[in-house]
């Protein structure tokens, strides 16, 4: 019997309301700025078999963390061996299918009438989990042993009793144990909130009706995606994206994606991609899966519900020993940079298989992260402040690229200057768009961001992991490349120094600054075809300089055309 589409829609929204409530609880109750302000966290609900049934609209890359963590928990402890009140913690990419150490997952079984029916799951990016570098992420790390505390699957609650000893062990292996302790307790409580809501849904509908509705929802999602694939012509397409280096310098590193369409099936192959990187740019399996699922959903059916039904039509192959399938103990802390370049490769490969009106120039496709640590502005102890920054989106066939946004696998908010200066011994000197960073075209690429921060106390330690400092975002159909990223110490002074994209452990004195300028998006179409009024507005708004307007658009200085 066919499922009732109205009942299915109502049920899907009930599930989403549970995860959205969990997400709001996690964000509003957390103590770290990284979760409460920047929203670097995600929540989801799984069934007892480990199938994803609902995920809140947070971080696409965290889908990999949650999928991997749930599978690891079920491999560690069968549902039948779990007890009501248990909760599990894990983060390790090799021991627990995580994506990198700062993303700590909490997985909680949800019992209905004495049987595990659901698994509530959440992940939070913790600003520090130990290791030699504050923030625990360095593009120059050579192995996971340099990336913070490794957590296999461990029960952190047993039948309702929190393991305080384990919690202290984890917290005191980080630079801010109080913050870690409080945020982990909030993560545990968030799942308990989700469990209560899931039980209320089951109490209202009855388990047989819920079980049937879940099966119908997953089957519908699978069928809908297969139908989208079937509309594409059979064939294959390949595209290569590039990292600037392997984390420790050297030549650019290739990421090769081949997309094959056969009937209603998709094959995604990463053969030809570069070997494991010496630095921390390798991508664990869970992060690779999340990258592929995101790209397929975004390109073929953005409104498709994110659940396990959409995985059935996709086969993924990544050769062992490449940066898309690394071997233990390859470092993975900066995997989000590579994941965004994987998305670039997939978008490029799909472009030849999709209608021309769906085309888009490359975006900045990087997740640059700046990390500061040092003595607190007020009181004792140390702080660790981490922020991932946006950049320019690629232009489309009918519109300019968006300015100063995250693209692809991340979706965090910025940390407002007021919150930053209130919490830390730092001042924001400038937070602005980067002039001329958007690729020229009939439609212009979006602009990158400049963020300049000043230390107000001696001994502030600065690190960054970034990319796109050598190779910019490609334009399309005659559009020009977007601007590249740049990193400076003491910008605009006699002591100005340009730093590498994987700088770590720079110690700043009071008054010294760092400035990161993120890349812009590529342009679309011949720059000579840009509307004169649009170019005039760009010049007036400081987005395109007169010099660049003359060079790239042939502007004559006579009113914009």
How would you characterize this protein structure?
The protein is an alpha+beta fold and 561 residues long. Among the domains are: 5-131 and 147-221, Beta-Lactamase, CATH 3.30.450; 360-530, no CATH class. Helix content is 29%, strand content 21%. It has helices at 5-29, 33-36, 62-76, 164-171, 177-205, 207-230, 285-300, 335-351, 417-423, 532-540, 546-553; strands at 41-47, 52-55, 87-90, 103-112, 115-125, 154-158, 161-162, 235-243, 253-262, 265-269, 314-317, 369-375, 382-388, 426-433, 449-455, 460-465, 486-489, 497-498, 506-508, 513-517. A 7-stranded antiparallel beta sheet has the order 2-1-5-4-3-6-7, with helices on both faces. A 5-stranded antiparallel beta sheet has the order 14-15-20-17-18, with helices on one face. Strand 9 (253-262) and strand 10 form a beta hairpin. Helix 1 (5-29) packs antiparallel against helix 5, helix 4 packs across helix 5 and helix 7 runs parallel beside helix 8. The longest helix has 29 residues, at 177-205. The mean pLDDT is 94.
Are there runs of 5+ residues with pLDDT below 50, and where? none
- Could you say which structural class the secondary elements and strand pairing correspond to? alpha+beta
Write down the overall mean pLDDT: 94
The strand count comes to 20
Helicity, as a percent range: 25-40%
Gross morphology: globular
Radius of gyration: 24 Å
**Major beta sheet, strand line-up:** 2-1-5-4-3-6-7
CA(first)-CA(last) distance: 63 Å
């Amino acid at each position: 019997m066919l499922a009732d589409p109205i009942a299915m829609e109502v049920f899907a929204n009930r599930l989403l309301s549970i995860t959205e409530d969990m997400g709001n609880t996690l964000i509003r109750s957390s103590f770290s700025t990284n979760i409460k302000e920047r929203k670097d966290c995600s929540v989801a609900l799984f069934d007892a078999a480990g199938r994803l049934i609902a995920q809140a609209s947070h971080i696409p890359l965290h889908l990999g963390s949650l999928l991997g963590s749930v599978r690891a928990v079920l491999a560690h402890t069968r549902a039948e061996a779990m007890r009501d009140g248990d909760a599990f913690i894990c983060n390790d990419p090799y021991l627990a299918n995580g994506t990198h150490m700062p993303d700590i997952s909490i997985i909680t079984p949800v019992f209905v009438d004495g049987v595990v029916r659901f698994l509530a799951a959440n992940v939070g990016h913790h600003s520090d989990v130990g290791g030699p570098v504050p923030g625990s992420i360095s593009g120059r790390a050579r192995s996971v042993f340099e990336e913070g505390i490794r957590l296999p699957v461990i029960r952190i609650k047993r039948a309702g009793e929190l393991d305080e000893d384990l919690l202290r062990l984890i917290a005191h292996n980080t630079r801010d144990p109080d913050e870690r302790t409080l945020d982990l307790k909030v993560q545990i409580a968030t799942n308990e909130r989700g469990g209560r809501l899931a039980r209320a849904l089951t109490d209202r509908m009855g388990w047989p009706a819920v079980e049937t509705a879940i099966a119908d929802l997953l089957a519908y999602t699978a069928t809908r995606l297969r139908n989208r694939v079937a509309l594409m012509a059979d064939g294959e397409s390949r595209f290569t994206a590039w990292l600037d280096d392997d984390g420790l310098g050297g030549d650019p590193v290739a990421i090769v994606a081949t997309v094959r369409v056969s009937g209603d099936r998709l094959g995604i192959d990463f053969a030809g991609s570069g070997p494991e990187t010496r630095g921390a740019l390798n991508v664990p399996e869970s992060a690779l899966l999340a990258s592929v699922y995101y790209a397929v959903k975004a390109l073929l059916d953005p409104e498709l519900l994110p659940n396990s039904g959409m995985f059935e039509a996709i086969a993924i192959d990544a050769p062992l020993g490449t940066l898309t399938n690394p071997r233990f103990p390859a470092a993975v802390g900066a995997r989000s940079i590579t994941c965004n370049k994987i998305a670039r490769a997939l978008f490029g490969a799909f472009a030849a298989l999709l209608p021309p009106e769906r085309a888009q120039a490359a975006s900045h496709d990087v997740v640059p992260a700046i990390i500061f640590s040092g003595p607190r502005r007020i009181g004792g102890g140390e702080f660790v402040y981490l922020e991932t920054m946006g950049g320019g989106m690629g232009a489309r066939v009918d519109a300019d690229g968006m300015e100063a946004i995250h693209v692809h696998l991340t979706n965090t908010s910025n940390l407002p200057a007021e919150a930053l200066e209130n919490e830390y011994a730092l001042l924001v000197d400038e937070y602005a768009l980067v002039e001329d960073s958007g690729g020229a075209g009939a439609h212009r690429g979006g602009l990158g961001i400049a963020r300049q921060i000043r230390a107000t106390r001696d001994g502030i330690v600065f690190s960054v992991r970034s990319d796109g400092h050598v190779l910019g975002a490609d334009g399309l159909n005659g559009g020009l490349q977007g601007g590249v990223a740049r990193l400076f110490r003491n910008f605009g002074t006699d002591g100005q120094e340009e730093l590498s994209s994987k700088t770590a452990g720079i110690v700043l004195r009071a008054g010294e600054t760092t400035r990161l300028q993120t890349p812009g998006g590529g342009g679309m179409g011949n720059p000579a075809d840009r509307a004169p009024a649009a170019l005039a507005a760009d010049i007036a708004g400081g987005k395109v300089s007169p010099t660049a307007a003359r060079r790239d658009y042939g502007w004559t200085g006579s009113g914009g055309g």
